[in-house]
Amino acid sequence: MQSAMTILLTTRDPALLGAIERLHPGLVALPLRGEIPERGLTNPLWCFVDWLLPDSSGLEMVRRLRESRATRAGHITMVLEEGDADAARRALRAGADDYLVGPLDPERLAKRLRLDQHDVPVRGARLEHGGLSVDLAAHQARWQGMPVALRPNELRLLTHFMEHPDQVFSRAALIEHLGKDQAGIDERTVDVWVGRLRRALTAHGAPDPLRTVRSLGYVLDSVEG
Question: Which position among 5, 85, 88, 112 has the lowest Cβ density within 10 Å, counted as fewest Cβ atoms?
């Protein structure tokens, strides 16, 4: 299990916060109220934001999390009250990485975070694809040695493609790989994740490594020797 992970939640249920830490001692679960913490947060950082908040909207909280230096690189999940496609699209436009339909409970959070032994990277493991590399222990992508800032979903997608070159993955398969609830995630959300990954790489001068296979999904082609 990963350690030193911080989770910020807008929930008002103190029992949920306590239950998370009891079930997963490596986590630090903190309430997210009006003010965003600027210090004391560890990485990786996950934020779960309710659609409706007592003093503001969840969408506004997502925007503020993306603007704050302390939380902008964290993984943000919007917790919807129902499976509304329009609400999901608005959450993604506001800066959320993904969404799920509430209510939350410790086990659903654990599933979303994929807290198991198999997710711990092998120390020193490194993937290479031309000038693009991923250091699995450091959770860091690089292009020609220079760091590329990626959100958790995009980094895990890139890692998955680099581990399985020349294999076409459907959107449903990518949702499953990321540990999401397929019933609650629109497959078009994968296009948002892939689009963010492509923009982050090209912004650092890297070529787009992914090829879209019409009606099937995406593939990372091997680098020609």
Answer: 85
Residues 6+ apart with CB under 8 A from 126: 133, 134, 135, 136
Q: Are 44 and 68 in contact (CB under 8 A)?
A: no
Provide the CA 93 distance to its chain's centre, in angstroms: 15
The closest of 200, 186, 194, 189 to 213, measured between CA atoms, is 194
Helix intervals (H) in the chain: 14-23, 58-67, 85-94, 106-113, 152-163, 171-177, 188-203
Contact criterion met (CB below 8 Å) for 45 and 75 = yes
Look at phi and psi of residue 98 and say left if phi exceeds 0, alpha if psi is from -120 to 50, else beta.
beta
Determine if residue 208 is left, alpha or beta; phi over 0 gives left, psi from -120 to 50 gives alpha, anything else beta: beta
**pLDDT one-digit tens code per residue, 16-49:** 877 877 777 777 888 888 788 887 787 778 899 9
70: left (phi over 0), alpha (psi -120 to 50) or beta: alpha
What confidence tier does 181 reach under pLDDT thresholds 50, 70, 90? low
Q: What are phi and psi of 142, to 5 degrees?
A: -140, 145
What pLDDT score was predicted for residue 105? Answer: 83
